[in-house]
Specification:
alpha+beta, Immunoglobulin-like, 7-stranded antiparallel β-sheet, 5-stranded mixed β-sheet, 5 helices, elongated
């Protein structure tokens, strides 16, 4: 029993290893008997706005018996609520078979709630479930729990020496792809609701939309001042004129509301400085439809002639009150979602 305890404790030496480099390790007091070398071979991740999923694979080799113990891990972190789960699957010969499941809440980390993306902070509300032959190894499991406790209740695999910067880059790519897919779906729905299917050439042009070069996302303007609108037609479609749909964010109702839909000629929209007839109140300076006020705004554009296109993605921008000579520099205001 003593050598078995040492053997299993060493199974978790992969917490100290990196990549394909295998390292021999032991937990507890030094004892004579078999040793085991463990390492992980691969880590994969997949991200959405709601959940981050992780998978690890690796193996251990016991000496001198040359017993091989494959293992795999699946983990998930649910964004917002901080609920985190990890399942460790052991598929070696008896008694190295079974599953260890951990759940925890990781919602107190300073930089990122996801414990696999940060080395900072700990987790709470920890629970454990053990299944299979390993369930009978109480002394060994107690050592595992102690090891998790030393990591402040974080997932075991979060202690791996993998490249977190690579995972952060993967996360950015996955979230952008998801956001683009949602935006494209919203654009198609917007196009459907606005009745573009009624126009000639819809089957082709409805899948095209103009580019909005100005304003840019997050750009700041003063109220009652011109907001340049610079557009470019989609490839393969001539832009004779455009329609621009403008909305403002109602902070009280916490929703976007229609403000105005204005026509813009291509001659003005294609100028280097764009169309500047909106934002300051129009030609007489009094038109509310052509006037901005402090808050969050967004606009979308479509080619209206000679053939109608689909609508572009929304571009959010911000408007603030004019700055007085004695005022401090204003903070940037991001639009509501």
């Amino acid at each position: 029993m003593k050598w078995m305890r040492q053997l299993f404790l060493a199974l978790f030496a992969w917490l100290l290893t990196q990549g394909l480099v295998y390292a021999t390790g032991r937990f507890g007091e030094a004892e004579s008997g078999p040793t085991i070398s463990c390492g992980y071979a691969r880590v994969d991740a997949r991200y959405t706005a709601k959940v981050a999923n992780y998978s690890f694979t690796g193996g251990c080799l016991q000496s001198p018996s040359e017993i091989q113990i494959p293992w795999s891990v699946s983990g998930a972190h649910h964004e917002g609520i901080g609920f985190t789960e990890e399942k460790i699957y052991l598929s070696g010969p008896s008694p190295y078979r079974g599953q260890i499941s951990f759940t925890m809440t990781c919602a107190n980390l300073r930089s990122n709630l996801d414990p696999w993306l940060t080395v900072d902070g700990g987790c709470g509300q920890f629970t454990t479930k053990v299944e299979g032959e390993i369930a009978g190894q109480k002394l060994l499991l107690d050592t595992v729990y102690k090891r998790v406790g030393a990591g402040r209740g974080r997932p075991l695999t979060a202690s791996f020496g993998y490249d977190r910067n690579a995972l952060l880059a993967k996360r950015a790519v996955d979230l952008k792809a998801e956001a683009d897919a949602i935006a494209n779906a919203a654009r198609r729905e917007q196009h459907r609701l606005q009745g573009a299917e009624k126009f000639t050439g819809t089957s082709y042009t409805a899948n095209l939309s103009p580019s909005v070069w100005a304003p840019t996302a997050g750009q700041m303007f003063y109220s009652k001042a011109p907001v340049p609108i610079k557009l470019a037609p989609p490839k393969g479609l001539t832009g004779g004129s455009y329609m621009v749909n403008i909305q403002r964010f109602d902070a009280t109702g916490k929703k976007w509301v229609a403000h105005a839909t204005i026509p813009v000629g291509a001659a003005q929209a294609h100028l280097p400085g764009g169309y500047t007839g909106w934002g300051a109140g129009g030609t007489d300076g009094r038109s509310l439809a052509f006037m901005t006020s402090p808050g969050s705004w967004r606009l979308s554009a479509q080619v209206s002639s000679p053939k109608q296109s689909g609508w572009s993605n929304w571009v959010n921008f911000n408007v603030m009150a004019p700055q007085s000579p004695t005022a401090t520099k204003p903070k940037r205001i991001w639009p509501g979602q």
